[in-house]
Amino acid sequence: MRARVTAAAVLLAAGLLAGCAREHGAAAPTPAPPSSSAMPSGYPEMQRKVAAAESALARADQDAAQDDTAGPGR
């Protein structure tokens, strides 16, 4: 079951990297931290994507924990 969780995490990370690379190019320079008055245009959307990814990983961890406690014969 851990292999499934690991595979899901790897796919999620690859998807996020691919999405970011498509928007900013593969060799985009590291941006400076945003000032409090000027946020990058896509920052709120990226925060939503990160929150969704963290939520999906938490659900996968919960599912894996339930599968591990179910015992053999499931």
Q: Extract low-pLDDT stretches.
A: none
Mean pLDDT: 76
N-to-C CA distance: 12 Å
Order of helices and strands: HH
Determine Rg (CA atoms, Å). Answer: 17 Å
| Secondary-structure content class | mainly alpha
Count, helices: 2
What percent of the residues sit in helical stretches (DSSP H or I)? 55-70%
Number of strands: 0
Principal-axis shape equals: elongated
Quote the beta fraction: under 5%
Biggest β-sheet, characterized?
none
Task: Give the gist of this structure.
With 74 residues, the chain is mainly α. The chain has helices at 2-24, 43-70.
List the helices and strands and how they pair.
Layout: H1 2-24, H2 43-70
Provide structural commentary.
- The protein has 74 residues and is mainly alpha-helical.
- The protein has a domain at 1-25.
- The protein has two helices and no strands.
- The longest helix is centred in the C-terminal third of the chain and has 28 residues, at 43-70.
- It is elongated and about 55 Å long.
- The N and C termini lie close together (12 Å).
- The relative contact order is 0.16.
- The mean pLDDT is 76.
